[in-house]
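>> Question from a student workshop board

For tomorrow's exercise we were told to take the sequence and the ligand below, predict the bound structure, and bring the output to class. My setup keeps failing. Could a helper post the expected result so I can at least see what it should look like? The ligand is iron/sulfur cluster.
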Amino acid sequence: MQTSATPTHCPYCALQCGMNLTPVPGGTVEVSERTDFPVNRGALCGKGRTAPALLSSRVRLTTPLVRSGGTLVPAGWDEALDRIAEGLRRTRTEHGPDAVGVFGGGGLTNEKAYALGKFARVVLGTSQIDYNGRFCMSSAAAAGTKAFGLDRGLPFPLEDIPRTGCVILVGSNLAETMPPSLRFFTELKENGGTLIVVDPRRTRTAEQADLHLAPRPGTDLALALGLLHLVVAEGRVDEEYVQARTDGWEEARAAVMAHWPEQVERITGVSVPQLREAVRLFCEPADAMVLTARGPEQQSKGTDTVGAWINLCLATGRAGRPRSGYGCLTGQGNGQGGREHGQKADQLPGYRKLDDPAARRHVAEVWGVDPDSLPGPGRSAYELLDALGTDIRSLLLMGSNPVVSAPRAAHIEERIRSLDLLVVCDVVLSETAALADVVLPVTQWAEETGTTTSLEGRVLLRRRAITAPEGVRSDLEVLHELADRLGVEKGFPTDPEEVFEELRRASAGGPADYSGITYRRLAEENGVFWPCPQGEPGASADGSVDAHPGTPRLFLDRFATADGRARFVPVSHRAIAEEPDEEYPVLLTTGRVVAQYQSGAQTRRVAELNAAAPGPFVELHPRLAARLGAAEGDPVAVVSRRGRAVAPARITTAIRPDTVFMPFHWPGEGRANTLTNPALDPTSRMPEFKACAVRLEAVRK
Ligand code: SF4
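>> Workshop helper replied:
Here is what the output should look like for this input. Compare the format with yours to find the bug.
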């Protein structure tokens, strides 16, 4: 047994904290501090600290399962893989290639996301592939691409945050979602900077703020417009910057001037003096930033909402400058890389567009196929899930648990149940895996090598620290075996570095260019920021070709648009898809708690985390609770047009009286996503997780 520590990264969120792993008896590892990684400098949250628990857990899957007589029973790998191949072949023959769907995840490594996209298009020939990252940050990606010509979550390293003058943090509770990142904001304040938090709840993050703005859920678009209106009215526009580096200001300005502060106060509930104070704090320092997260993004107008915050940055000259900029705090472990290399419905590796003939030619050449054989863009995540059992008859699912995480989850569960064939690759029997016809047990983070790309756009090497238990195979091995059974014998290597070498070539020349990044560099340099094109041979000291230093800071000289100028996108406020009414008079917003991660498939199975956050709850204001006659801990039913969820009341003045909050990590009776609205943003196809109309009902104990 290897005994030395392996430097690697956490399996969970997009901060990708560095950690050292040392093998210990029992098939698991011990986590120790890794101080050389600048993002967390050794600090970890409870999720990262306890991540090894799942490696040797009793609930870990170590043998394939196949459905027989209605129940899942253990099977050999060959039997399981043969059954999958036969089922996929039958679906293709009877219903055509687009009747096979593929659903990936933002937690998959770059190599897996790349191989999954290639598998869908080359082996299955289906256009029907998307992933759960669509639920996560796609609105920010769409808005960033419109404005800057490129989407990279943060266009600067986190270490720039303490050096700016003011940060507006919109819809992020990072004190709970990525606690070690809080230190950047603490340092910001220690350096004399200010923090403004925009959140309907007084979260642990909002408690750190110099100014907390608590708009009604779904009105932060109006809030951003109101702030920009005041910027214009108070003569704080950076005219020189706007002239030199942007286009479209006059149209955006005209749209903003219709949003009077008093009107914005009526829409958002944020007072005019608070709006003025926010503008003062944001505009007075020489540098400032806006960071958005799921709050503004998970809306049916998420792209416009993020666009409004970007407009605020552009008008005040806070983008593409040192210590100033707009960024999106991506959530999932490989939320950034997972959206760059081909598991998205409209995309090819390197962040290339699937409908771009030149991109198709380039990638088809790397893959050794005819460009015309590549399918076109397919459905987005929710639309794909909604088509299960009708247009899509078989589904291959990796790294996702939509029974808990999809909006209108009861409906999606019903769709999943109606499939002819569901194949799930997972480490535990998640709620979705429990419905599968075949479940394949796969390796976990500490048992495999691969790369991820953090929220900073920093490509990182996660290293294997221990050997996987017998009976478990990697996702890459699964794709290799299935491709082989479906007649594609070459092109699906099982060695992650070999996959990465191909990814480098596929991404070369694309917006997310990884061609200058190698495993060796990642090991030596503690990560490399993309874009990192391949350098000239002999350019580096050792004569190798990978000399480009990477790009920690984007847009300093020019934006990634054709002419190098950023674009204002004129946007106006509009209501959420489902406003409260007499029947459903309260707003529901959803989110996360510190001890659980996403659908909870992994973290709910870690005893320490489960003890800290054992179940769902309904957070509500004392006034709402009194109207309902509910005391702390009483079961409360939350009812929307899509279903009913019941969870204990958590009564607090930290939430607006017109809003309730539920975390979404749990299945069953307290599943928050039973209630959420799948209304989609027209550009990003992001569902409106963050706001829908509900009514509350007291539940007899
Ligand atoms: Fe892992 Fe994120 Fe926690 Fe860091 S903050 S330890 S990356 S879950």
